[in-house]
Amino acid sequence: MWLKNLLPLLLWSSPLLQSAISNPVILGQRASVTTESQGLQDIVTWDEYSFLVRGERIVFFFGEFHPFRLPSPDLWLDVLQKVKALGYNGVSFYVNWALLEGEPGVFRADGVFALEPFFEAASEAGIYLLARPGSYINAEVAGGGFPGWLSHVDGTFRTNATGFLEATDLYMKRVGELIAKAQITEGGPVILVQPENEYTNPAGNITFPNSDYFQYVIDQIRAAGIVVPTISNDASPKGIFSPDSAIVTTHVDVYGHDSYPLGFNCEQPYNWTDNRLPTNFWTLHEQQSSSTPYSIIEFQGGSFDPWGGYGFDNCATLTNEQFERIFYKNDISFRVTMLNLYMTYGGTNWGNLGHPLGYTSYDYGAPISEDRAVLRAKYSEAKLIANFLKVTPAYITSIPMNYTNGSFASTSDIAVTPLIGNGTDADIYVVRHAAYNSMTSTPYALSVSSSAGNITIPQLKTLSDHLTLNGRDSKIHVVDYSLGNKKLLYSSAEVFTWQQYSKETVLVLYGGENETHEFAVTASQCKLRSGHPSAVTIATQDQYDVVQWQVTPDAGVVQCGDLTIHLLWRNDAYNWWVLELPASAPVSNYSLPTKTNVIINGGYLMRTARLEGGNLYLTGDINTTTTISVAGSPSFNKIYFNGKDVGTSPATLVYIKPQLNIPILSKATWSKLTWASMNSLPEIESTYSDELWTIANKTSTVNQFRPTTPQVLYASDYGYHSGSLLYRGHFSTPAGSTSLNLSLLTQGGHAYGYSVWLNSTNILQYPGISTSQNHNVTIPLSSLTPSTNYIVTILIDHLGLTENFNPGNDTMREPRGLLSYNLTTTTTSIPITWKLTGNLNGEHYIDKTRGPLNEGGMFFERQGYHLPSAPLTNTSVFPSQNDSPLAGFSGPGLRFYATTFPLDLQTPEYDIPLAFVFTNSSTTTSNGSRPTAFRAQLYINGFQFGKYVNHIGPQTVFPVPEGVLNYHGLNYVGVSLWNLEDDDSDVRVKLDGFELRTSSAPVMSGRGREVRLSYVLPRDGWSRRQGAY
């Protein structure tokens, strides 16, 4: 059908389109459908068009979510249901090796690091999973997911070097076995697995691509019992390890790639650079992997933000609903049938797990914000797009054409990419501005071929003689679009969803405000059932009813026989939901195209629907009193919402504000709490002993960054990989010398800082800047006593190990801590004996509950005083009582403050997101031009949930989830303050404001389950640590 009907259009088609039609290889024009399963399993199969699950074609529309970034397992279902409510059917997730094998040779995956609860939540939500265990993951985590101890393993990373491969074996075996048990073949949610990650851009003198290495990773996966298809993610489309590639001997089952077209600069979120919209992805796919479904494993869903950046609200704006309309529909123009949006929920880089270029929040500007709210318009826009694909099976086997300017549209300012129906299927036209970032509102008409002949849309001229594409918008027009036993001849308005029921078919269309749209159906005496008559015109032409309508905020309904068509303003469509009804096992809550949907209008969030006993049971959340209407469903009697009978449709859902029993919402009430504090820098006191510290006595290292000192000083070589680091250097002044020069080179990651003391005198404060990860300085030491012992103490902030993005570069080995030193007279170098420490016991870390990265080397951390049940009233430990961080202190140093407070909140009936907020308005220097230089860390019940750097920023709000916070009992909060102002500064380092408040409005929630604590007392609280120093 499609080629015959398209031929008349060639009279007006561009040469580009004519060339495309004459080249069936580029177009992917194939008639045969051959599924492949590699003989390992037959539940998840694929061909050149799409994946199939249990024999049904399906578009995989996934969102990225990392459970390790939300250390409250009982909230994982909440996030997954919010993903499912978008119309997505899957989630891609990383597993972070560094968190599971922080101690070499010991694999721990329990508590907040357990995978089984995540798999169970995915099954309950009906979410398929793409497992991405690495071993390398990047992911903006410290070391890219490599554990710190790997830095002292010999062998180039991400190659077939024996030392590296053997180091990965235990982790890949154990995590692979966990994933294997959760595969769809075992009744679980895992349907795909990705070996390695973004293995694309090599550096250094290595074999690349290394088939032996990649095959080793695949073999690790298969040996662990994983049988689902393997899929890759090139960082950009290069075809590496594609099953169609002839240049390698190793192949994945399905090839995929990533794309972040707008990059990661959130400074000017409305400034879209020219030529950033991909236009050649389909051509590249046909060249690189034409035998597999076109798959984008990471497409931009937000952006990370660096220290000193512009905040994630800016990143959300950069990738807002306009971005989604243009870029995601552009992906659709390439017939992508596996699309994963990175991130859909970002979470938090708690406990030092983040990379050095980012701060605590990993909100990412994603559709679901860090505190799990779904208030961003981009959440709702993504829902419209995903649901269209869900109900458009013709899309899967359509034939993508090259885009053209002026061939289908009446103006060359509009670009149109057709996806032509294969056989009798629908044709789909993706429309955008030729200049993708245009802000212009452009009128146009669309000329298409249909089963009724050639048509120019709009046909009617009553309300308008043209369509309109507003700036930074894109639309999907459909022709010969199937609605079950009915057909939509065409529609310029976009399809949100449709469903055929026993007595009617329901179709939901939408458009932008004040746009004019038109659709046509087989003549069936279409009538306006509701809406403004002046905004809708209906005429019969050539056996079709043609309906032209102007989009207004007031919805309209047109009835065409037993076809009910809802006409919505796009912003109103944001409030509509499509919920799948459960099916019998083994499908259950998982998505398949043949499942029946319920269509709901209204509510902040609709989670689930089921029919039982003749009634419709819905779960969801509301943030205000609202009315919900069931626009489409199998027949039912009553509606039950969150278990309560609310009558029939439409039903009013009454919102009752919760009693927020949060006793510490303001600075005034914080200051009234009983705080205790302690000096956390006893290391500079003359009585302090470092006898138990690690001696820096290694004379060699496998690190390619070669030391320039007689002994290796790199922290990771001695087992300290995260948090703060301390060094103590012992030396004696030569006889007759009263002055020396001390040169130091330190490195801690971008935005790090450090302080230096000679005995108990501060001699250097380096507050840090966002763009530097190291610092070289020479400090003159004067007024020294000859032939006298001195100690240099250095406190360094360690902001995470560098990622290892480029295979062969081994940047994860970039050392942290003190790299080199030189102590000299005018003629002689003076030796220094160095000792160092980080977290207590280093790789043999103490706190198994919060993991290997949560603690650093500060005194209070080594002693465990950041943990609940610490001895706050013991004045020998906390000598300062009633001393809060709101009062602070003067002079260089480090103090730790702690207190307790109760919570008693109405959960799970309400979801009440909370955040700690830091404010500070004080400035320093004589003209007050610079914010006060200090660093703070936030500990909630022992979990480090915030690193606040006052003079760099940008983060001031630190969401903390229920589970880490005890919503029904006592909470322990600790705050460290590190003054980085000079010794002669009279600035008092303090928090001008420190509040606990709701980060988003509380919602009455249908999530249903109690959130258990992520820790257990007394097991996970403070007890005296043996060997602590």
UniProtKB/TrEMBL annotation:
Its EC number is 3.2.1.23. Gene3D superfamilies: Beta-galactosidase, domain 2, Beta-galactosidase, domain 3, Galactose-binding domain-like, Glycosidases. PROSITE patterns: GLYCOSYL_HYDROL_F35. Residues 1-22 form the signal peptide. GO terms for molecular function: beta-galactosidase activity. GO terms for biological process: carbohydrate metabolic process. SUPFAM superfamilies: (Trans)glycosidases, Beta-galactosidase LacA, domain 3, Galactose-binding domain-like, Glycosyl hydrolase domain. It comes from the Eukaryota. It holds the Pfam family Glyco_hydro_35. Keywords: Glycoprotein, Glycosidase, Hydrolase, Signal. It catalyses: Hydrolysis of terminal non-reducing beta-D-galactose residues in beta-D-galactosides. Residues 395-576 form the Beta-galactosidase domain. Belongs to the glycosyl hydrolase 35 family. This is Beta-galactosidase. The lineage of its organism: Eukaryota, Fungi, Dikarya, Ascomycota, Pezizomycotina.
